[in-house]
Inverse folding.
């Protein structure tokens, strides 16, 4: 058993329970909210409390929130939500971009003038070991970064290396947003293996966007956990395809290499509210209401479902030795 840092203090890894491994609460663009958008802080918090209360009532115990710099991260707001719900929220540290680092980092770091150690590493390690500013000592429980259709740009690689170093210093696990259509998991593997990172400590997020079973098996055989974590984003892959992919991998013996989630949020400002109707399944309860019955109908056992929802998340947050 391991003490896992959460938005409301440490929780025993054995008590994480049914865990959704990739759910946001708020995804924002703070410059926009501060200047143009109508942002109702109290209303947004109340909505999040209501949605997470529904999730708790459906039998889920923990969400893992990978909202980092680049996604409007503001952990004091998450703490306020977490204090009002029966769902444990594990928060992340990291930087999210598909191409270049945020301007703050562009002239601070290795190979620049002046040539300095990457300030991201110290920021990540502080969040993981001391606490996140403004939270009274809440610690991040894992590291998060991204690679998408632009591929392994210099800055994406820089962030991945910073994440790898903070990981090896602290032992905190990693989640990488990937773009399986371009097999970016293999690019991630190249960089992480050069940094000496153990693949079993890493979730390759959004693997479930792909139904290329051979590719997913290749990543799982390297040791990675596959994030089957966008159930409800039907525009990228419909639920029938996502379910069939999980069922086939489970049939081949890979239930211990998959985690389930929806990548949903209570407030997500990348989409106009008018578009929300195009994604009617994109919410916290889609897995419980629709996906689990569909998996069972395809002969995925309750034991395999528990492995993906309970066992694998617990192992991910328990394996935290630095190396
Ligand atoms: Zn996400």
């Amino acid at each position: 058993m391991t003490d896992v840092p959460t938005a409301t203090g440490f929780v025993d890894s054995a008590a994480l329970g049914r865990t959704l491994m990739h759910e946001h609460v708020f995804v924002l663009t703070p410059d926009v909210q501060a200047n143009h958008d109508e942002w109702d802080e109290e209303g947004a918090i109340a909505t999040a409390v209501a949605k997470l209360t529904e999730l708790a009532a459906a039998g889920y115990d923990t969400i893992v929130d990978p909202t980092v710099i680049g996604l409007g991260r503001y952990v004091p707001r998450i703490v306020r939500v977490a204090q009002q719900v029966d769902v444990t929220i594990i928060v992340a540290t990291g930087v999210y971009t598909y191409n270049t680092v945020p301007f703050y980092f562009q002239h601070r770091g290795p190979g620049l003038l002046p040539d300095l150690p990457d300030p991201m590493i110290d920021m990540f390690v502080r969040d993981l070991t001391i606490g996140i500013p403004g939270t009274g000592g809440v610690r991040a429980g894992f590291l998060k970064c991204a690679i998408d259709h632009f591929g392994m740009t210099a800055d994406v690689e820089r962030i991945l290396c910073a994440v790898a170093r903070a990981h090896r210093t602290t032992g905190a696990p990693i989640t990488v947003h990937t773009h399986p259509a371009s097999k970016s998991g293999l690019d991630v593997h190249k960089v992480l293996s050069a940094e000496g990172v153990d693949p079993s400590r890493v979730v390759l997020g959004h693997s479930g966007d792909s139904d290329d079973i051979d590719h997913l098996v290749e990543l799982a055989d390297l040791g990675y956990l596959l994030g089957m974590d966008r159930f409800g984003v039907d525009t990228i892959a419909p639920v029938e395809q996502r379910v069939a992919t999980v069922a086939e991998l489970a049939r081949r013996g890979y239930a211990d290499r998959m985690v389930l989630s929806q990548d949903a949020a209570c407030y997500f400002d990348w989409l106009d509210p008018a578009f929300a109707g195009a994604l009617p399944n994109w919410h916290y309860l889609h897995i419980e209401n629709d996906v689990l019955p569909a998996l069972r109908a395809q002969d995925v056992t309750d034991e395999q479902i528990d492995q993906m929802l309970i066992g694998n998340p617990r192992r991910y947050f328990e394996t935290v030795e630095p190396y």
About this structure: The mean pLDDT is 96. The longest helix spans residues 41-57. Residues 288 and 320 are 29 Å apart (CA to CA). The radius of gyration is 18 Å.
